[in-house]
């Protein structure tokens, strides 16, 4: 069986994690130095040194390909940077290492079984680097001649390409002509044409044209005209995920499904065959497996069936590193009646190494809030930042950070470009944090609809909602 690994030009990978990333847009890495020691504040990351150091080691192990099939749990109280740490880690990974981020509840919201969704995200997180030999035409363009028909629709033409030893004329069709004009190829350029897909790459300007330098601009790269044959075999490397190979080769879906994300369930026979083939390629040295990272946020939302399936997937031949995050303490595992640490069943917990995150101190909260202000491009004065920090310490980092954009609007309303202490006060009064909301509810409990559907509008009238 032949297995396709490329969907042609520009096969898209899904990017449905925008919302997850926006509140972490200030983070551009784990902020480690060359010895994997965390810097106090770097790449948008502040404090949480232990956890960052631990994740730095994880990154190192991923680089060395040592840690496939392991599970890591980041556990800690709400808004202590668990999701932020995972986003930082993803940016420290090499560019070919796949990283997939999901929130546990997504597993239940797809139009497919839980096990299928889990299998897909696992396979999205495994990269296959494939070595392929392709035939390319490489040479200097001598002349391009394009004839346009009067009606404009059909184009045809000729291109003359040479090396130092030979010169050939090739016929051009519509697609190649478009490709040439897209890459702005002109006579004197040294180009490479991939014979398999017609893709044209401009390698530079030929030295023989160096005297036209004045007209070219300073950033022009000069290369020498290739020698020898025009057609040469070249080794190219490309990386796809196992899931992409699945989709491209599953007959019902076809590669277009990669663009819509609507991949449906993939038959297990297809996957078996692909695993077999990839295994063979690996043996023959044609492919290299790159275990990536699957990040499952809010992992306590998974149920017992998902957890046991993850146990199984972790033992698979191809398995990524699974990083999970939760803010739960001892709590019930969904789908069971028993409690366990972090809501994870003990057999999975046993396979997991745990990284904990701690609450931030005042200084760290202040620094993070300042970074968020810069990120949201708002100006804040010192007093206001101090008050905001105090609010952050007493309520939560996330609440304080949400007040930034609100206070910005409040300050704009009084035509000020800078947030002052009164703006923070006003937005603090306008929007409740969770603890004030709880105490308000406790005081006014009878005005709300209760579990029995009863509500009291004033002391005398009892209303029953049915
Ligand atoms: N160490 C840090 N450095 C910089 N920014 C941080 C840090 N920790 C948290 N933040 C920012 O604070 C906010 C809250 O953090 P985050 O969402 O990562 O918390 P969490 O631990 O995932 O919380 P939850 O348990 O509620 O999911 C985010 O905007 C995050 O980017
Ligand atoms: Mg989180």
From TrEMBL:
Its EC number is 3.6.4.12. The keyword Methyltransferase does not apply. GO terms for molecular function: 5'-3' DNA helicase activity; ATP binding; ATP hydrolysis activity. GO terms for biological process: box C/D snoRNP assembly; chromatin organization; DNA repair. It catalyses: ATP + H2O = ADP + phosphate + H(+). It is found in: Nucleus. GO terms for cellular component: Ino80 complex; R2TP complex; Swr1 complex. Residues 68-359 form the AAA+ ATPase domain. Coiled coil: none annotated. Keywords: Activator, ATP-binding, Chromatin regulator, DNA damage, DNA repair, Helicase, Hydrolase, Nucleotide-binding, Nucleus, Transcription, Transcription regulation. It holds the Pfam family TIP49. Belongs to the RuvB family. DNA helicase participates in several chromatin remodeling complexes, including the SWR1 and the INO80 complexes. This is RuvB-like helicase. It comes from Pichia inconspicua.
